[in-house]
Amino acid sequence: MPVDSVTKLDVLGNQCIHLFTAIYGLLDSESKEHHGAISKEDVQNELGRFRIWAENIGALQSRNKPTSLEYRLREASETRLHIQQFLEDIKESLTEGTKLHLLFSNGFSYVDHLRRP
Fold first, then answer.
1. Which contacts (CB < 8 Å, 24+ apart) does range 93-98 have?
2. Would you kindly state where each structural domain of the chain is located, as residue ranges?
3. Cα atoms in the 13 Å half-sphere on the side-chain side of 7
4. Under a CB-based contact definition with an 8 Å cutoff, are residues 18 and 89 in contact?
5. How does residue 104 score in pLDDT terms, banded at 50, 70 and 90?
6. What is the pLDDT of residues 40-67, one digit of tens each?
7. How far apart are CA 9 and CA 5, in angstroms?
8. DSSP per residue over 64-99, as a string?
9. Cα–Cα dist 66/58, whole Å
10. What is the mean pLDDT of residues 31-44?
């Protein structure tokens, strides 16, 4: 798999951190009571867990550092692809969560969301 055709792992990892932070910023302290799903504390805890995991495996480090995940997986393309897909799934879920929160905070209901094409 050519390296140029894939997203860099550190870019994906940092995009996930940015999205966690964005969701945290969107929530107010009363959001769990209003939406019944998630609170700022929940998001902060998950961000902390993600950050620890990503830092431990080197997923946030620049690809040219020998301790980066990208560098360590340079000869393990299948494993690298699985981790890339995992990070893309997290990013997609966080993006969807951000969109849903914005919809709900603007008066849409979950039923309205399900009816959208």
1. 94/16, 94/19, 94/20, 94/23, 95/19, 97/19, 97/23, 98/19, 98/22, 98/23, 98/26
2. 6-115
3. 16
4. no
5. low
6. 899 999 999 999 999 999 999 998 899 9
7. 12
8. TSTTSHHHHTTT-HHHHHHHHHHHHHHHHHHHHHHH
9. 9
10. 70
- For residue 63, give the DSSP letter: T
Say which amino acid occupies 113: H
Question: Measured between alpha carbons, how far is 60 from 75 in angstroms, rounded to an integer?
Answer: 19
What are the C-alpha distances in Å from 5 to residues 8, 102, 117?
9, 32, 31
CA 26 to chain centre: 15
Q: Are 19 and 98 in contact (CB under 8 A)?
A: yes
Q: Are 9 and 69 in contact (CB under 8 A)?
A: yes
Cα distances (angstroms) measured from residue 96 to each of 41, 115, 117: 19, 16, 15
Local structure of residue 61 (DSSP, 8 states):
S
* One-letter identity of residue 70: E
Tokens of 90: 């997290």
